[in-house]
Amino acid sequence: METWDDYRIILALARDGTLRAAAGSLGLTHTTVARRLAAVQDRRGILFDRTPTGYVPTELGLTLVEVAERMEALAHAGARHSKAAGEDISGPITLSLPEPIAQYLLLEDLFAFTELYPGVELTVETGFAFADLDRSEADVVVRGTDTPPDHLVGRRLFPNRVTYYASREYLERTPRDELRWIAPKVGGLWPDWLESSPYPDVPVGLRLDDITARHRAMVAGLGLGRGACFMADPDPRVVRLTDAAPVAQQDLWVLTHPDLRDTPRIRALMTFLIAALEAKRDLVSGNLVMGTT
Asked: What is the DSSP letter of 137?
């Protein structure tokens, strides 16, 4: 085994199970991965058995997978320490956060940060999967969670709160027996949302897994909805369906890896994000109400 690239092939194939999936993970072609695997096995022996469901590591293969995992951890640690080097507030940062928070809560703040620190190259990746900071998938994360990884460092802020909404126009034009809910998928964070709603007898018209799509559909007057206060309350077209206090969901956290906590640009971004979110505590907590039914 001569190069780290050989180990990357082994690790990707062990994790993904097929040449095509491994190629996708590595950003290579199917043919390239097949050729490199053949070359590795010519030198070292059979590392994978090909089965009807995919590639399975042999005993020798498992040994090399363990070596590859250790090498990968060292490579990621080296990358983190490289990012931590230097005292000036400049260089690349990857921030991971959910799309609704990026779009509805922090978009202007993110632009303000880049203007305040023009030497920082800020990349924002949106999604709900918790980025793996150990593998340098991101440098800083903003997430709603009750159980963040124990080894990460940062700040717990306050819970995101949700309640029930509809557009004024939808309520005015829709007879009571024609009302419909725009709902999330069955289960999830809100297992009993309908029973506790102001309209428990109203049927679900459409289920949408995407939070932003549900919000936009509700604002467009396509049904009743439940959603985050920070998304709905600022919109004058929308009213709350209940005077009950919004329900707390998961706490918001701003987190980074311990290896990066003292890096000036990482510290600057985290301080900025914490201050920006604290300034919007009332909005996130549902204390800035535009109107109710």
From this structure: S
> Which domains are present in the chain?
4-77 (1.10.10.10), 91-157+252-281 (3.40.190.10), 160-249 (3.40.190.10)
pLDDT at 291 > cutoff 50: no
Amino acid at 237: R
Q: Which residue did the predictor score with more confidence, 133 or 187?
A: 133
185-to-145, 162, 176, 191, 209 alpha-carbon distances in Å: 19, 16, 24, 9, 6
The rounded distance, in Å, linking the Cα atoms of 28 and 37 is 13
Rg of the chain over Cα atoms, rounded to whole angstroms, equals 24
With 0-12 / 13-18 / 19 or more C-beta atoms within 10 angstroms meaning exposed / middle / buried, residue 219 is buried
Report the C-alpha gap between 293 and 179 in whole angstroms. Answer: 15
Give the pair of three-digit tokens for residue 263: 């890096």
Q: Cβ distance 37 to 9 under 8 Å?
A: yes
Percent above pLDDT 90 for the chain: 61
**Angstrom distance (rounded) from CA 207 to CA 92:** 39
Long-range contact pairs involving 53-56 (C-beta distance under 8 Å, separation at least 24): 53/17, 54/17, 54/18, 55/13, 55/14, 55/17, 55/18, 55/19, 56/17
Under DSSP, the state recorded for 133 is: G
Candidates 143, 163, 142; CA nearest to 229 is 163
Q: What is the pLDDT of residues 13-64, one digit of tens each?
A: 998 988 889 888 888 888 888 888 888 888 778 889 989 888 998 988 888 8
Q: pTM of this prediction?
A: 0.69
Task: Please give the distance of CA 258 from its chain centroid, rounded to a whole number.
Answer: 20
Cα 192 to Cα 196: distance, rounded to the nearest angstrom: 7
Per-residue pLDDT tens digits for 202-225: 999 999 989 999 999 999 999 999
